[in-house]
């Protein structure tokens, strides 16, 4: 009987290469595919910092595929990545928001685009090296998306947009392992990149300076720095250079600690205030999607978080209609910013997520 064919997305890192090795161990026929996503247009960009899934990573993925004895293909997604991920990232900061490009990349590039290509490769499943788990439902039961077994590496936060159709065709081989176990699997498979260092920056901003990246693509407009009562405190060089919660780099000496508490791109105003002004308990979110296809009941007890590395906190679902949801945390959260992804859990299960439009305290004025 012919083995089930799986298309494995190989980024050139150890996680996706180990995923391919684990699939082979389980008896699948594996085909490796690497997406070329980004080439830094600056001619002076140093080698190793010019590309995401560029020459160096493609070479690593190709070599890993060769060591595993599987076919390997490279597809150029640079135009789609720029249109769907990089341009919205820049536009989001220009609009005073805090966008999450990894969510958009997973939604529009790594999953939607690759799942659409399964028939062309004659593959039944797509696999990636994400640290999350899929529990496939039997006899019509819904598929479930779960946190990764390694709390320090869990990536379920950036996969909340996956629905039933996508989960039914998805395998996440490393999701049940710790990082050290993944590296051990890569070593057992004889992979040279078993000890390759993890990437920690945005893949298209390898030096980590996203403000400079945005500034190089947005014409800054100077405007007013104001307190919460509207009193002018000074000038700023452009809204896109600030984020909610920022304390340093305000450009004015205020004599005491002040934080960016709001950004009004339309009025070109940066609002600063006390740290207490940063806390909110109620979140209104848009573009919401539910993994099971429908939300839990109104008033349901949930857990939620609005940052990748944060711990989900108790909350309650106040409203869910269409792509809109409102939830309230039991305790106020600091620096909830428009544009951030807010993801809803119940225990280890990912229920869904969306994009914050507004955050405020119960009873506070809009």
Structure description:
This protein is α+β, with helices and mostly antiparallel strands. It has three domains: 5-195, HUPs (Rossmann fold), CATH 3.40.50.620; 220-273, SH3 type barrels; 277-360, Translation factors (Elongation Factor Tu (Ef-tu), domain 3, Beta Barrel). The chain contains eight helices and 19 strands. A six-stranded antiparallel beta barrel has the order 14-17-16-15-18-19. A five-stranded parallel β-sheet has the order 5-2-1-6-9, sandwiched between helices. Helix 3 packs antiparallel against helix 4. The protein is globular. Mean pLDDT is 92; it is low at 46-51.
What is this structure, in a nutshell?
The protein has helices at residues 14-25, 55-68, 78-94, 101-116, 118-121, 164-167, 179-188, 210-215, and strands at 5-9, 29-36, 38-39, 51-52, 71-76, 125-127, 132-135, 144-147, 170-171, 223-227, 232-236, 259-264, 269-273, 279-290, 301-305, 313-321, 324-334, 341-346, 349-360.
């Amino acid at each position: 009987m012919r083995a089930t064919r799986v298309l494995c997305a190989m980024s050139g890192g150890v996680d996706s290469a180990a995923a391919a090795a684990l699939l082979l161990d389980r008896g699948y026929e594996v085909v490796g595919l690497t997406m070329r996503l980004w080439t830094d247009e600056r001619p002076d960009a140093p080698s190793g910092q010019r590309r995401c899934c560029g020459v160096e990573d493609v070479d690593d993925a190709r070599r890993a595929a060769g060591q595993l004895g599987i076919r390997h293909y490279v597809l150029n997604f640079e135009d789609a990545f720029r249109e769907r991920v990089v341009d919205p990232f820049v536009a989001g900061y220009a609009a005073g928001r805090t966008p999450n490009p990894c969510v958009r990349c997973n939604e529009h590039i790594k999953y939607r685009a690759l799942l659409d290509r399964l028939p062309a490769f004659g593959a039944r499943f797509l696999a990636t090296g994400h640290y999350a788990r899929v529990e496939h439902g039997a006899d019509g039961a819904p598929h479930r998306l779960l946190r990764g077994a390694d709390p320090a590496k869990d990536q379920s936060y950036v996969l909340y947009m996956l629905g039933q159709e996508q989960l039914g065709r998805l395998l996440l081989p490393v999701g049940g392992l710790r990082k050290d176990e993944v590296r051990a699997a890569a070593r057992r498979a004889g992979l040279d990149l078993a000890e390759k260092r993890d990437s920690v920056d945005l893949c298209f901003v390898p030096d980590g300076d996203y403000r400079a990246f945005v500034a190089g693509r947005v014409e800054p407009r100077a405007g007013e720095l104001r307190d919460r009562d509207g009193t002018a405190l000074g000038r700023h060089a452009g809204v896109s250079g600030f984020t909610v919660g920022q304390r340093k780099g305000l450009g004015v000496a205020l004599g005491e600690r002040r934080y960016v508490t709001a950004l009004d791109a339309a009025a070109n105003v940066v609002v600063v205030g006390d740290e207490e002004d940063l806390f909110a308990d109620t979140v209104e979110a848009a573009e919401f999607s539910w993994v099971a296809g429908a939300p839990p009941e109104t008033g349901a007890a949930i857990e939620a978080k609005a940052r990748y590395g944060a711990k989900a906190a108790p909350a309650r679902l106040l409203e869910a209609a269409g792509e809109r949801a409102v939830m309230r945390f039991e305790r106020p959260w600091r620096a909830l910013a428009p544009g951030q992804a807010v993801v809803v859990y119940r225990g280890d299960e990912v229920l869904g997520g969306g994009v914050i439009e507004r955050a405020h305290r119960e009873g506070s004025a809009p």
